[in-house]
Amino acid sequence: MDIKPNEVESVSVVGTLNGDDVKIIKTHGGFHLAVGKKNKKSKKSEVLAGGSHKAIVAHQIQKDYGSDYQPILSKSEHDNLGKIEDKTSYLNSDNIQDGVELYAITKNNKVEFVLYKRGLTLCKYGAEIKSDSLILKNKYFNKSLIKKEMATANAIARAIEDKVYELNLTTIEKKV
Fold this sequence. Notes:
Elements: E1 8-17, E2 20-27, E3 32-36, E4 46-51, H1 54-65, E5 69-71, E6 83-86, H2 93-97, E7 100-107, E8 110-117, E9 120-130, E10 133-141, H3 150-166, E11 171-174
Parallel strand pairs: 10-11
Antiparallel strand pairs: 1-2, 1-5, 2-3, 3-4, 6-7, 7-8, 8-9, 9-10
């Protein structure tokens, strides 16, 4: 895959793998590619993971390379990728077999619930924690990629309810 310099929006270091930096390249289109050396003897960096969400790409590297990958400590809250929780088990078996994944990503007082498939965001809910409430503020659906299924909607709702319980919140408000 060739990415031209004029297609790159930003490059950031997210950790180390086998003693070398792992960098995430964000293109102007919003796609994130993680590059690094897969093993200690590699002379060139290779693509390690890719997708539409930076935190999930970094999470995928962690899953694939285990203790060989060391995420960097964030210098500021802005650089922090957030805490990622895999909620894929809430999906039905057909979705899981199709490669669909469900994540809850918490960063500061913001929470995202992301339905993801092979590097693409199918659906995303953005929420904010205020006092004792989780306020759903925005939503995104990729209508060409997502199938409208009640089981998928129930899985997302269960992930949201789970987060409300985990954070000891009392209400969910929709401002979408």
